[in-house]
Hints:
It contains 2 helices and 10 strands, in the order αββββαββββββ. By secondary structure, the chain is an alpha+beta fold. It is globular, with a radius of gyration of 18 Å. It has a 4-stranded antiparallel β-sheet with strand order 1-2-3-8, with no helix packed on it. The chain has a 4-stranded antiparallel β-sheet with strand order 6-5-9-10, with no helix packed on it. Strands 4-7 form a two-stranded antiparallel ribbon. Helices cover about 15% and strands about 30% of the residues.
Amino acid sequence: xxxxxxxxxxxxxxxxxxxxxxxxxxxxxxxxxxxxxxxxxxxxxxxxxxxxxxxxxxxxxxxxxxxxxxxxxxxxxxxxxxxxxxxxxxxxxxxxxxxxxxxxxxxxxxxxxxxxxxxxxxxxxxxxxxxxxxxxxxxxxxxxxxxxxxxxxxxxxxxxxxxxxxxxxxxxxxxxxxxxxxxxxxxxxxxxx
Length: 193
């Protein structure tokens, strides 16, 4: 897989995400009808800038997996979806389930120099396809930045942070993979799409 193809696929993913957001925004603009008292609360806009995929509306309430980390950290995986171009995007949340402020451990970035130099991330995450006997590492862009949530730092007690990780997609015949993130317990997730 070439880096140019990865960049094109990522731009396509960004365009798809923007189009979906615009469609949701337009759908929410209707008003003045009989159903005004039944309107749903407005969706909040993300404070995060950039082209990172985020948790999608309509994801299952029950997480696919819960990975326990150090100092009360909890990583809940909410979706694992095959994307166009042969990618697998894993979405979830990191929550400080403890009663005091905690820093996301730097080990979650992994130990690759190219990834570490871009700051705290989930770049150390891997998927394990036991059936195919393969391990998949997070994707990187041309500068070595991991295609994951970056800038992880301090989480206050009870605070949650939406996260994502992108991997090369396992073969279509693989419907379940193990997920490993340094300092967190391992889990198994089902792939959709």
